[in-house]
Amino acid sequence: MASSTPPRRTASLLIDCPDAKGLVASVSGFLYQHGANILHSDQHRDDEQGLFFMRNEWDLADFALDEPAFAAAFTPLAARFGMNWRVEYSSNPLRVAILVSKQLHCLSDLLERFSTHDLPGELRLVLSNHDDAGPLTRFHGVRFERIPVTPADKAGAERSQIGILLEEGVDLIVLARYMQVLSGDFVARFPGRIINVHHSFLPAFSGARPYHAAHQRGVKLIGATSHYVTEVLDDGPIIEQDVVRVSHRDSVAGMIRQGRDVERVVLSRAVRWHLEHRILAYSNKTVIFD
Amino acid sequence: MASSTPPRRTASLLIDCPDAKGLVASVSGFLYQHGANILHSDQHRDDEQGLFFMRNEWDLADFALDEPAFAAAFTPLAARFGMNWRVEYSSNPLRVAILVSKQLHCLSDLLERFSTHDLPGELRLVLSNHDDAGPLTRFHGVRFERIPVTPADKAGAERSQIGILLEEGVDLIVLARYMQVLSGDFVARFPGRIINVHHSFLPAFSGARPYHAAHQRGVKLIGATSHYVTEVLDDGPIIEQDVVRVSHRDSVAGMIRQGRDVERVVLSRAVRWHLEHRILAYSNKTVIFD
Amino acid sequence: MASSTPPRRTASLLIDCPDAKGLVASVSGFLYQHGANILHSDQHRDDEQGLFFMRNEWDLADFALDEPAFAAAFTPLAARFGMNWRVEYSSNPLRVAILVSKQLHCLSDLLERFSTHDLPGELRLVLSNHDDAGPLTRFHGVRFERIPVTPADKAGAERSQIGILLEEGVDLIVLARYMQVLSGDFVARFPGRIINVHHSFLPAFSGARPYHAAHQRGVKLIGATSHYVTEVLDDGPIIEQDVVRVSHRDSVAGMIRQGRDVERVVLSRAVRWHLEHRILAYSNKTVIFD
Amino acid sequence: MASSTPPRRTASLLIDCPDAKGLVASVSGFLYQHGANILHSDQHRDDEQGLFFMRNEWDLADFALDEPAFAAAFTPLAARFGMNWRVEYSSNPLRVAILVSKQLHCLSDLLERFSTHDLPGELRLVLSNHDDAGPLTRFHGVRFERIPVTPADKAGAERSQIGILLEEGVDLIVLARYMQVLSGDFVARFPGRIINVHHSFLPAFSGARPYHAAHQRGVKLIGATSHYVTEVLDDGPIIEQDVVRVSHRDSVAGMIRQGRDVERVVLSRAVRWHLEHRILAYSNKTVIFD
How far away is chain A from the Cα of D126, in angstroms, using its nearest Cα? Predict the structure, then answer.
């Protein structure tokens, strides 16, 4: 079907390093020399900070290097330019966990996208502090675990969560309207691997009850923001944002309802780009490669 | 929950008639005189055609007239102005059927909205010419019927469909990416009561394979349109449209994927407004009341 | 021309008061009784605060009451419901002053709109703390005054400005990227009659250099906001907002450039709605009537 | 100023050719070898048609090749891959003419952008079949010529226009709501060098009076399209499109008014990208390079 992941095996190389002459020539020369058939190539230069970012995705069909051989061959070039780099293979789809509370609109949307292979990763489990998400999750054949979170034993709950996440070998954690704040310890276990959707156009209305705050301020557009989670609440690198028009006629309930449509879209785009290895985060920002 | 339908019982009066002085005064005077506590009131004048449109929604708590009494009392006033009118009661939610083929993204979205009471109607059944939609529909506790449609026996299939729709007393039929063209006879059985989503920004790219046509034409935005179904394909009154930005980088498959997000939103808005009795269609257009 | 103000003479009645039964009936009955041919009528109820807002615009051709007669006849009704009200006549277009500094994109846009009668008011003068705006303003036949503003004599400059504004009988002051903060005294002289455009999506990035702040935060949309000026900087009732998509590729300069397109549109819409008497401000919000 | 063209001298190389392995490596290797400090590099592959497109912009400060030397050195590489290519130098800004009729909103906007150096080209003249645009054009110090166009002598008028355009050495012709259809001969003289703005979301509502057609069809969004002019009316490669929301309340005049804001933005973006050498047209589409 048109929307399914193409069966061809590809590799994606992501690089960031200080900007220098000859970077594109060296990297594309290296890939060409080893038989890469480039499918996508995108670069970005941050002139202010003097940084260079690059993503190349190529078909592995004629490529001469397997994973260990690539590392051996590429390391000298990477060292010359001081690169941070990694290669991701489409044959190793990322393993995903979704954390959710009682509102299921984002979860429902993501379940549909994973089950139709609209999203390329492997959804391993859904974790919740409530029961509500259980039936739909299990209908889709996905493992569901309820781990209650109480003020008294939040640390214990997080230990249980982390245990299951490690057991499933989870690469990406998606907070699909998960209403608990993760501890710094939890976040530090999964750096750059937790995506949250916040129901406002950040940095406006961070924190609790953003639709109420937006209603009170009388804004004419409401938004949603997907971002990587860092130790500072609602402050991590923004991945995607979108808005919808509201008016004086919209009650808080109406804003909540319309906001859900934006939340779904904004979160699913962020998850897609992460799973396609299209995002590099730096300086609390993101580069989204084409 | 914040987004659920409020439990208060309301009535909605929809009027269209030739424009004249005193219309608002007469109608609002009538409602006031019988104790209506107005919640929403909206009017529209079409200056070109000299037409007047009005919707009033009021709380029934203190209202003096029940359904038959309302008709008896309002008829003389309606006659004086030559009004078409109807009253809808929130205690009689509309009964809805969804027709779907193999693509389930709109269906999945609507099932979630009905099951969380985000949409106010009563979803009675899902009809399909394929089996794919069965499991999810039944998971949500909704009746599912498969009626195969073959070129040889399309008329017979439509008879079966109509039979079930009448049996369930369906008020609104939603074509959620249903890939069969309904016959004129079918459409005539449910005038102004069939909503379709077309996967283009109508009137551009009507007919089959609109994303392919949009890709070939090199447009920079793609859209979706929800509209009432008439006997002319993709030509009925437009209810809602929206777009999303694309670029030369987007393949047809990418357009299809991004288009799905627009289809979902555009269709669900149209269904909501119809179920809330906010739409009046005339001259192949729609008035959407606030 | 299609876009010019129609020559018919109209009156607009704006009302706000505590919500009560019979408000629409009473007001529309009053207007009907005196021969008003209603062109636009719009209401809003703020359920939380129990407030009612209404705007009626009617053709004066057959209307029985002139300005003093209207006040005499309407006052008892207004008193009964505790209304704040005012009537505006299209034959008395508002007199407008624009304050601007060195960036002329909003001014240039507004001058074009006033000179083609796309905007209904009467532009009386342009005030600036610099010379840059002089030639274009004078080309359009509009009075231009430069009043330098220095930290040492800001109060004196404001006295001069106020003198000219009063001399011209200005009803509306538009800050078209005027880079000086007005004193509380100045603002208090023109309550609800000063419109500013702020170059961010408020409440995000209030204060100075919002595009720099947006760039640093890595947002994916930038916006602009038009609002009434109050004594608190960037905090008055929001009239209109809009956004444009940006990416990691956009430098601060690129954001500034794209932001200008949003500023122009957002400011000109606010000015239009004010001049058409479509705005009621309350609780630091605005109702924008249809 | 933040938005002005940076003074550094750059070159932009645009390439299109059949896709092949080693293209990026060869081109970037060539540029590196001659000392190019790359500022922007963007590629696109059209998988369906097997085509490759590339744009590189580099700082000329350390670049070893002047214009003739570049051609000599690059030709063998270009021949090997079957490239169409050209180099554009920022020191040779394009010369622009604007054609306009009686509606001046796009012209006014472009004049402001050229005069503040927001747009990088050199505006040489404004041509019109009417007098209206004369004063504002001359105010900005730009040559204005009126050439009346009559049905009887359209060919003669075009000969006069072409004469002046050639005399001024014009590289780009911008139709800023110019209401005459250019002949095939005229278009053929300036292939890929005429940009028009059409006041609809093409391909919907091509031809005359698109806002009237949109109003009649009852669409919920109206748009504008900038595109290269070809011999087929409103059918050339689309450069940019945008839309604005309308409702049943909007008259044709209201649509015209709101549409103007979209026309301005959509046209000025197309002009900017052309002047920055960011557009490649092929197969009646455009690639817009980052």
Answer: 37
